[in-house]
Amino acid sequence: MKRWWSLVGKEWRGSWTVILLALAATIGFDTWLAIKAPVWSARINGELAFGLSFIPFVGIGIAALVVGYYTMRNEWRDRTSLQLLSYPVSGAGILWAKLLVAVLGLGLITVVATVGTWFVTQRSSIPYSTIMSATEDILRLTPWERTLDIIWMVVCSILGTAFIVAVGLFSFTIGTIVPRISGLIAVIVYGLTWYLTFAFAPHAMYAFSFVPNPGLIVYTGLGPMAARKVIPLLPFWPTIMGTVILILIAGKILELEVDA
Asked: Has this prediction a pTM greater than 0.70?
C-alpha cells in the first residue's frame, strides 16, 4: 500500500501544474464576473453574471471526458510508460492511482468554481422571486435531511466523474494493443463504451433496484400537505461496478505490456 501511495504522490506532482493553472483561470474568471456583476445588474440583466459563472463547470465536464485518455497518452508520448510499468504495483493499481489524482484535481476545481458562483451571486441583483422559486424545495428539508442529500449528491458526483475518467483510461489502454492505429482504436472503443453504457444502463438500474440503494429526500406537494418521499439513486451500484470492471480489464492489459 505504501508503494501505491508513492505512485499517487508521483502522479499528483506531475499534475499539479495543470491543476494550478485551471484554478487560477477559474478564480480569475469568477473575480472578473464579480466585478462586472453590479454594473451588469444596473444596466443589462441581474442574472447575466450568475449565468456566466457556470461556464467553468462546462470546462470541468469537458476535462472529465478527456483527462483519462490524455493522462495515459502523455505516458506513451513522453516514453515514460516503461518507467511507469516498472513500479511494483499491479496494472489496475497504476490506473487507480491515475483515477484518484484526476478525480481529486477535478473535485478541487469544482469546489473553487462553486465558491466563485456563490460569490458572483452575492454581487448580482437577482430578483427575490427567482431565489425563492429555486430554493423553495430545499428550504422544506430539515437540517439533517439537507445534509444527507448533499452528502449523497457529492458522492454520486464523485462516482460519476470516476466512471467518466475510467472510460478514458480504458479506451486508451485498449488502443495500445494495436500501436499503429492506437488513436483510432481508442476513439472507437470510447464511443462503443458510451453506447453500451446508455444502452444497458436502464437494465442495470432495474436489476439493482432490488438491493438497498441510497436516496434523496424530497417533498412533493404544497404547504403543510407536502408529502415526504425518498428517490432511490439507482445508478449508484452500476456506476461503481462499471468503474471497477473497466479499471480491472485495462489493468490486465497494462500487465501484458510489462510482460512484453
From this structure: yes
State the Cα–Cα distance between residues 67 and 106, nearest whole angstrom.
10
- List, in order, residues 6 or more apart from 46 with CB less than 8 Å away: 40, 124, 125, 126, 127
Q: How far is CA 7 from CA 76, 89, 211, in A?
A: 17, 9, 35
d(CA 67, CA 95): 13
What pLDDT, in 10s, does the model give residues 208-242?
989 999 988 887 766 566 677 888 899 999 999 99
Cα 176 from chain centroid?
25
**CA atoms within a 13 Å half-sphere pointing along the CA-CB vector of 224:** 0
Per residue in 20-79, pLDDT (tens digit) is 999 999 999 999 998 888 888 777 766 788 888 899 999 999 999 999 888 888 766 655
CB 255 within 8 A of CB 90: yes
